[in-house]
Design a protein that fits this description.
Elements: H1 3-13, H2 17-30, H3 35-48, H4 53-65, H5 76-84
Helix pairs in contact: 1-2, 3-4
């Protein structure tokens, strides 16, 4: 973990260093998912909330476009293939 980033988070938020380090570790872990892992996880989460696939593909494509390292435009067909093979 980057000590400068932890120091920056601690300074800018007023969090103690240990808490800032935990926050940074959580954020790094969250964004370390591969595109495939992210798509499968979000599909499960949205299905559990009774969303239908047509809506799910739109939501996931929008979320992917706003991730720090976006995979580019992703079609509903590609998303289906990631989930169902």
């Amino acid at each position: 973990m980057d000590p400068e980033l932890v120091r920056h988070v601690a300074t800018s938020t007023g969090l103690p260093g240990e808490v800032a380090a935990r926050v940074v570790a959580d954020v790094v872990a969250y964004y370390s998912e591969t595109t495939e892992e992210f798509v499968r996880r979000r599909h499960r989460e949205l299905q559990a909330r009774d969303h239908r696939n047509a809506e799910i593909w739109t939501v996931i494509a929008d979320e992917l476009a706003h991730r720090p390292v976006a995979p580019g435009e992703v079609s509903a067909r590609r998303l289906r293939r990631l989930v169902y093979g």
